[in-house]
Amino acid sequence: MIVAGALAGTVALGIGLGFWASGDDSSPAGSAQRQQPSIDRSAAAPEVSPNRTPKPTPNRSYALSKAPRTIPAVRSHTAARGPGWRAVRGERVVVNDADLVDEGRLIAGELGLTYAGEKDDVRAGDVRLTLNDDEGADPESYAMTVRGGRVVISGPSDAGVFYGTRTLKQEVHRGGTAPEGVVKDEPAKPVRGFMLDIARKPFTAAWIEDRVRELGDLKFNELGLHFSDDQGFRIASDTHPEIVSQQHLTKAEVKKIVDLAASRHITVVPEIDSPGHLGAVIAAHPDLQLRNAQGVAAKGAVDISKPAAGDIVDDLLNEYAGLFPGSKWNLGGDEYQALMVSSPEASYPQLAAAAKDAYGAGGTVADLTTAWLNDRADTMRAHDRTMRVWNDGFFRGTAVQPAKDLRVGYWTGKEIGARPPVEYLSAGRKLINYNDEFLYYVLGQPNNFVYPTGQRIYEQWTPLVVRGTQAVPARYDGQILGGSFAVWCDLAGSQTQDQVAAGIRMPLRATVQKLWDPRRPALSWAQFKALADQLG
């Protein structure tokens, strides 16, 4: 119900750093410079409790509100005249559904309010969280109405409501006021990720938990954990304890990280990379190492002609499926040394022989490797996981085709026989953008990698820029599910974990801004950085 006397209009986002517009009450109501998404999810407020006096009704003595200043920026804000809302210790957070208890308790604690549970009455100063029945809406969308000294955040799911509470938290950061009006917001991309290599460099559980909190406040929804590689295997194992590195996370520590992530609506996406990058496994099982015709060992690669190699990886996949209950999994598949030489069949005759035995005279090492990947996918499909594979784990012209449900994690175009992103997209594959030109933070900057900057991501990258600096045609936008910023620890001692946190701070913020809102940012880089510094 629009309060009598309020004058509302949709205002452009990102103009000015203050919460409130200046000027007298004769100023115009604003213009529709930002198109609102086609969502309408406001919730009807219950009747006001007779034993509480609402705050004064907004009137024309107030300046027209300006859009909230958040990262990522909200997609639309309808301005209004009124006092806005300020957190006052002791005021209530109430919910209309038991599914919102976690979101209610969290925002109440963060803002110094009282969590009052499920309530039907209305009091001055309330923050009300509600689920609505907006069928077909993006489950991560939400609406937030600030009116009459109260806040109502509604959405079709608890994830959407959670994101609304993140907007409110940023709005009132350090004692500020949430501006009068209505925010309607939803992400452009369903995958907004951060991937961390804990195999090459062990990070403490506390550090990872801090990143989870940071990611949640920025509306990221994935945390990738690459925990097995040549340099280490970093999570305790019951099936193969012999492969676990001395420095590792206990399963209890991992469960705490997973639970914390779930409370922030972040899915943890584990990765046990294979058939390459298995050096830690090979160290305990040297008989599984791939060797060429001259007997030279291939770094990190298992011999996929040996059934025992698949057995041990399946043991691990089945074990960790129970530790990571999320719906997504990364099978790896990149940089298998047997396919990084000019003639795989001549260099690795045992693989060539196994391929011919399985697929006839025309069978190739690429066929055998694709079949290995499909077998691992079968293992995880039994756990009802949606799987992704690095783009250089897909091969052109093979008789054995990769499973149709495998998604492409596109990171590079530098491998032998590199395939451009359009090849995957035109074949109907869904893709997650890990573009190593913009989104790879590689410790020590080896192999011509340069630490990415937030400014370059903010000003030059979009989800359509999958490889290098060129965008794929816009018609493929729907197949690009989103993107992920990645930390790889090739030269692990180059930075401390605190230096990593500082180095990725602005790149993370720039990345999520471009994943949340597909439009050209309203703020300049200098303004965006100043806002990030203000929000902390």
Entry keywords:
536 residues; alpha/beta; eight-stranded mixed beta sheet; eight-stranded parallel β-barrel; elongated
Question: How does this model look, in words?
Answer:
This protein is of the alpha/beta class and 536 residues long. The protein is 28% helix and 18% strand. The protein contains 13 helices and 19 strands. The chain has helices spanning 101-111, 158-171, 205-217, 251-263, 279-284, 307-323, 344-347, 349-359, 365-381, 421-426, 454-460, 497-516, 525-535; strands at residues 9-10, 76-79, 92-95, 114-118, 127-131, 142-147, 150-155, 181-185, 191-197, 222-228, 267-274, 289-291, 297-302, 328-332, 386-390, 407-410, 431-433, 440-442, 480-488. The strands form three sheets. Strands 1-2-8-6-7-5-3-4 form an eight-stranded mixed beta sheet, with helices on one face. Strands 9-10-11-14-15-16-17-19 form an eight-stranded parallel β-barrel, surrounded by four helices. Strand 3 (92-95), helix 1 and strand 4 (114-118) form a beta-alpha-beta unit. Helix 6 (307-323) runs parallel beside helix 9 (365-381). It is elongated. It starts with 8 loop residues before the first strand and ends with a helix. The model is unreliable at 1-54 (pLDDT under 50).
